[in-house]
Amino acid sequence: MYHTYKSSYDRSMEKTREQVFINSLRKEFELSPAESQGVLDLAQRCLFGEAPSNVGLIRFICASQKARHGKPLKEQDLLEVELNLDNGVDDLNVLRDQGSETLRQLKILRLTEEAYLQGGLLTQEDLGRMLQVSSRTIRKDMQALQHDGNTIHTRGNDQDIGPGVSHKTHIIDLYLSGMTYHEIMLKTRHSAHAIKRYVSTFGRLLIMLNKGLKLSEISRLLGCSERLTREYLVLFNKYKQGDHWPTVYIELMDQLQMMYPAKKKKLVQP
Fold this sequence. Notes:
The chain is mainly α. The chain has two domains: 57-163, no CATH class; 173-259. It contains 14 helices and three strands. It has helices at 2-13, 17-28, 33-48, 89-98, 100-117, 124-131, 135-147, 158-161, 167-176, 181-188, 192-210, 215-222, 226-239, 247-259; strands spanning 57-64, 78-84, 120-121. It has a three-stranded antiparallel beta sheet with strand order 2-1-3, with helices on one face. Helix 6 (124-131) crosses helix 7 (135-147) and helix 9 crosses helix 11. The chain is elongated, with a radius of gyration of 24 Å. Residues 1-6 have low confidence and may be disordered.
């Protein structure tokens, strides 16, 4: 049975475009199988770039943030970005709990922010192409997202909204303002698990601030960009009450102490 399956697989591989290319190299240029495969690998890297490192990631060509409006995109600066089209379990949880429309809106938030952080700007047409829907549907989704306070960077409206903040910072802001997880889920289209993860990260930042660590050190230990760390620090100062931390900060650190019982050293409130 194994040999039968392998034979069927081999026959299928012979019918691919890659194999046609290799056969042409061997026939027309008399290259060996190894040489032909090497040329194929080089051509794929040059024409399509390196394959994404993780499952769910894609490479996409979009307009650079430096591209000016009023000219065709083919005459503008273009940029290749790596985007997370499928975020695995988190996306599946949103699909299960909130439905396909909410999942699509979550992907709009994620894709536009990832492109923006890499120096690019997606268009509504780009989003429609990746998500397999019309530009009209994308516009409707964007209006719903912006109504709930989410920042969306696209080529069509980026000049009107300024730099904005990341979706992670927006989630923490809603949490610190007193919203429940369910309310945050409805506004940001994220799963409860993702929200808890972002809140936990912010709590770890509080612990590091309490130890007097610098921004670069905090970013490295949190595993996030310095830009996101700065946004968190802005939030920290927004909700800080004079020389004292608000109750929500203390509760958050207490929760982390319960999660990691081995670390029982009492945190000193500033």
